[in-house]
Amino acid sequence: MQKLAICKRSTSSTAKMRSKMNDFRAFESSIHSLMAASSIPGVSLATVENGEVKVMPMGVAELDAMRPVVETTVFDAASLSKPVTAYIALQLVDSGAIELDQPLSRIVPKGVPPQLASSPITVRHVLTHTSGLPNLRSKEPLRTYFPPGSWFSYSSVGFTYLQMALEAVTTESLEALAKRLVFDPLEMQSSSFQWHERFNEDYATPHEDEKPLEKHRPAAAQASYSLQTTAGDYAKFIGAVLDGTSLTEATRRQWLAPAVRVPREDAIHLADSAPETERDVGWGLGWGFETTDGTFFQWGKMDGVRAFAMGNPHTQSAIVLLTNSNRGLRLMEAAAKAVLPGHHPAFSWLQASVTE
Questions:
Q1: 64-71 long-range contacts, Cβ below 8 Å, gap at least 24?
Q2: Nearest to 80 by CA among 256, 230, 261, 284
Q3: Separation of alpha carbons 280 and 124, rounded Å
Q4: Contact at 8 Å (CB) between 68 and 289?
Q5: Sheet strands (E) in 228-313
Q6: Which helix (H) or strand (E) holds 45?
Q7: Predicted local distance difference test score (pLDDT) of residue 13
Q8: Angle at CA of residue 157, ends 77 and 289, nearest 5°
Q9: How many Å apart are CA 153 and CA 297, to the nearest integer?
Q10: Could you give the CA distance from residue 191 to residue 77 in angstroms, rounded to a whole number?
Q11: For the segment 256-292, what is each residue's pLDDT rounded down to a tens digit?
Q12: What whole-number percentage of the chain has pLDDT above 70?
């Protein structure tokens, strides 16, 4: 009887494995079809399920050279840099080096425009995108467009300000902080906020409408966009997010909880009055959130590059999507179905608020 019971469990387990493999093959086939339909040259997709990482490289790293994408191919992560910076900041909060609600102007008063220095922008404001700062620098003097903390308006500039503060309180560069607090502990051996010669061996070339662009090679770390990484490396980072690695329980709870709702069908709202907001999409200390089930996400966008990450701490599952095409976000919904089935209000918000 004992032998029969073992046999039954083994058969059931084998059937489940076969079913999952068939589902995964169908999913991989659908991604290939979508890539072909949108003329997306290359993709590196990683899934995380209960600590297990799988990487699926597809397509080519450069159309002209027809170099295939492999697991070690390094991509621009664009704004997927921001959650890594948030992770660094929160570890420094836990260590007492900086406070979430400490005005950054008290840390970096030099080299900051007077109007900005007088604004009480904090770490919390930057991570929740409620600083009042614009998304990108322009020819106009840098200023806040609404009182910090009032509402959400996506700001890459805010992360530059935060970087200045983190480097000031630690006397370390962002790259050194990332290496000490993220890359080395998580064994992200192909990741850096700045370009290294070793990346020349295997990198993804950006493409805009199927035309190769010059590869971005950041000489210095930029908190909001300069991360160079592989899908497998970033999946290791996502695994740490799901586990709460290196954070106190109190900080982990704050990190994985929405704090403010985002504007309806828009990521940037610099008007002088509060926006209408999305019912089911919000933002927390470095991540966007689907407020119904706690699924977190972040997208990335640069010339010829699109990236996306999404995870759920309750199911301990996530996906990472890195692409070398301006059309790459067309794959995000299909990619999520691999491990995160169900309705995702984040997709409709992103489709309305992020241009291709």
A1: 64/212, 65/205, 67/202, 69/42, 69/43, 69/44, 69/204, 70/202, 71/44, 71/230, 71/231, 71/232
A2: 230
A3: 21
A4: no
A5: 228-229, 260-263, 277-283, 288-290, 295-302, 305-312
A6: strand 42-49
A7: 52
A8: 60
A9: 16
A10: 10
A11: 999 999 999 999 999 999 999 999 999 999 999 999 9
A12: 93
Cα 112 to Cα 117, 155, 205, 209, distances in angstroms: 6, 17, 35, 38
Rg (CA), the chain: 21
Residues 6+ positions from 282 with CB-CB distance below 8 Å = 258, 259, 260, 261, 262, 288, 289, 291
Nearest alpha carbon to residue 155 among 194, 125, 175, 178: 125
Instruction: Check residue 26 and give its pLDDT.
Output: 73
Backbone φ/ψ region at 59: left (φ over 0), alpha (ψ -120 to 50), beta? left
Which among 84, 63, 62, 82 has a CA at the least distance from the CA of 74? Answer: 62
Take residue 12 and report the two structure tokens written for it: 């059931």
41-353 has which CATH code? Answer: 3.40.710.10
Cα–Cα distance measured from residue 301 to residue 204, given in angstroms and rounded to the nearest whole number: 15
Tell me what pLDDT residue 15 has: 57
Dist CA 324 CA 51 (whole Å): 27
Residue 20, pLDDT score: 52
Domain ranges of the chain: 1-38, 41-353
DSSP assignment, residue 148? T
The reported pLDDT for the residue numbered 125 is 98
Query: In Å, how far are 202, 255, 299, 324 from 192, measured between CA atoms?
Result: 14, 23, 18, 18
354 and 301 in contact (C-beta within 8 Å)?
Answer: yes
pLDDT surpasses 70 at 16: no
Q: Is residue 320 a contact partner of residue 238, using CB atoms and an 8 Å limit?
A: yes
